[in-house]
Specification:
The protein is of the alpha+beta class. It contains seven helices and nine strands.
Length: about 190
């Protein structure tokens, strides 16, 4: 768990409620902002980072007034959607940048700024380890081959459309698609 100067931080009830019953919290951190640049908002309503066995969650209050009435932005970063995480270290603070697998929105990489340097290093290390494990053991979706009776009830053109969707989603390879396509075109 993340640590503050006073000792280990207790995870707030509102944060625990965001985690699914079968999801395990690996790390929690409250971000108090810079020690050298007073930021009342961050002192009263700190950002929080939660790492679970499935995702990274960033909770960001929306200013003093809106934060006081509980308005927060919740950004969820599932590990399966992450390609990489970067750490930019400063003297006391750090920034985490996340590279998603999908296209970037507006050309910007999501980032979490002004994190305690040691806690950012902890988050970086945990997320990198998880991403490396996922890279070493990727999930392979099972390829479902329709039975002979199902193939006869669906027209070859419909089967071809379904195969194209399977290829686009990455479930089957281009070679598998081409092989099946030849078989289906013979039936037309």
């Amino acid at each position: 768990m993340g640590k503050e100067e006073e000792g280990e931080e207790e995870i707030p009830k509102e944060v625990k409620e965001l985690v699914a019953p079968n999801e395990r919290i690996l790390y929690f951190s409250k971000q108090k902002g810079s020690k050298f640049k007073p930021d009342l908002k961050k002192r009263i309503f700190p950002d929080m980072i939660i790492l679970t066995d499935r995702r990274m969650l960033h909770i960001h209050p929306r200013g003093l007034i809106r934060g006081a009435i509980g308005m927060r932005d919740y950004t969820d970063y599932p590990y399966e959607d992450m390609r990489n995480i970067e750490l930019k270290r400063g003297t006391f603070r750090a920034t985490l940048k996340i590279t998603p697998k999908s296209k970037l929105e507006g050309g910007k990489m999501p980032e979490i700024k002004d994190i305690n340097k040691h806690e950012a290093e902890d988050v970086f290390g945990i997320v990198r380890e998880i991403l490396m494990k996922k890279e070493a053991h990727p999930r392979v979706a099972p390829v479902i081959v329709p039975s002979q009776s199902a193939e006869k009830s669906i027209s070859p053109l419909e089967q071809l459309e379904k195969l194209a969707k399977l290829k686009e989603s990455g479930i089957i390879t281009n070679e598998e698609f081409e092989e099946k396509k030849k078989d289906l075109l013979k039936k037309i």
